[in-house]
Each structure stands twice: as structure tokens, then as C-alpha cells.
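Human: Note C-alpha cell order:
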Amino acid sequence: MHISYSQPLSAGWNRMKKALFQPFDLNKWFRVGFTAWLAGLTDCRGNSSGNNGSNNNWDEFFSFPQTAWDWLLDNPVWANLIIVGLIILFLVITVCIWVSSRGKFMFLHNVIHDKAEISQPWHEFRKQGNSLFIFQFFWGWFAFAVFALILVYSFVTGRTLYETHASRAVVFAGISQMVLLFVAYLVVFGFISLLLKDFVVQIMYKQKVGILRGWGKFLILFSKRALPFIIYGLFIFVLGIGVMIAVILFAVMTCCVGLLLIAIPYIGAVILLPISYTFRAFSVEFLAQFGDEYNVLPPVVHLADDLETEEG
């Protein structure tokens, strides 16, 4: 079986153009954009920055945990407020995961059927959404715990290198190890999250099953055809870089006004709807290549078939 990447992408692009521009309906954009925003609430986006500092800066940096702990002991009121804030943050994140889990099925439903429904898929895929929520809740906190362990390991390693005045070669080796560890973390957890969002959710949608059966059915396919999905992940990565470049150019052309609009929750999802719609349709078209069992697209009824049926 030949697996194509350009053909599903082209089909997804055409599906997006037909749904959003033929004809252009602003009300539909806002409704579908709302489901796209819900679906992407828990998607990871971020950036990083750094600066150079003197030895005093490094001393302050590596002594920060002890300094922070001493400050909390000396300021119990603020410590309690921080604890309350963390509890509220935990509850907000939990609600976002729950809503996003249901939103993934809503957005998929609208892309598959070229609709702009909100209420109907919200209720229809309640069981599947709740099942996905439970998995994403524990998976998300597990990923956070692993990330925290990597941060602690990197912090301890960096402090040891600094305090022992290690040679440049040892420092380089230590930094390289930390970088590789972070890259491995991003690749493994990012790829698993991509498979969940792009394919396992489709199987749950089509067969009306929970998260465990959805993963089970997908892993059977993955064990037989792992390479196409690995290439798919690399293909998505390259497309993502292209999208980032396009967004940067858009920001420059609009004097950063466009970037500010994209940063606004929900409004940004509506502006970027053609991109998210194309990516979602691309994953649907791609998985359909593996057989009817994985094809969530509705059957195409041609005019000739209708005439034959009427004559019969």
C-alpha cells in the first residue's frame, strides 16, 4: 500500500477552501473557530530566551531555591496565598483539559461534515470526550512531572559544574547532555501527543469507543505501519516551521498588529482557522489511506448513483 503525504495535504487544503471560502461565511468562521479554539486549549506553545550574567548572577541563580524557601518561611501569609493560587491554577487547568477534550471531537465533527455545529457534537461525543479527558489529565501531569525532574536534574548538574569549577570540556559535555535530554523529551512526548490528537481521536470518533480501545486499535495499526506515521510526524514538524515563518511575515507586514490579534484567545483561533482546519483535514485524509476501518469521512454519493437508485 502506497502512503501519500502530498495528496492528503492537497485534499485537506481543498476541503478547507470549500468549507471556509466557498462561500465565505463570517458566522461559520466564528462558530467553527470556537470549536478549533476549544480543541487547542491544551496544545503546547511557548518560547524561550536567555541572557548572560556575571558570577554574582550565577551565585544568585543557583542559590535561588534556598532563598525562595527562606522567604516563604518568613512570609507565611504570602506562602498561603501562593498555595491558594496554585490550587486555583490546578482547577483552571483541569477545566481547560476537560473542555478541550470535548472540543477535539467537536472540531473534528465540523471538519468531516463541513458544518459549524457546537451543541450537537458537544452532547453526542460526551462519553468519548470524558474518556479522553481522563487520559489527558493523567498524561499531562505525568509529562509535567517528567519535565520537572529534567529541570531539577539540569539544575543540580549545572550547580555542580559551577561550584567545582569544571573545565570547559566537562561543562560542554554536561550542557550537551542536558540539551539532548530536553530534545528527547520534546520528541517523545510531542510525538505521542500528536498521535493522540490526530489519529486516536479519529478512531474514537468513528467507532464510538473509549480512550483505551482507541489507543489499542491505533497501536495495532502502528505496529504494522510505524514508518509512515514517523514520517508524518516529521512532515508536520516541517509544515509547522513553514507556518511559523508565515506568521512572522504576517506580523511584520501588519506592524505586529496581526500578532497581537493572534495572541488574543479565540480571536487568534478564528484568524488562524484556515491553518488549523487544513491540518485537521490533512490528518483525516491521511488516516483514511489505511482502509475503511480508519476512514471517518462520509461516503461520497455521486449524481449517477442517485439516478440509478431512483430508476431501480
User: Anything to note?
Assistant: Residues 6-311 form one domain.
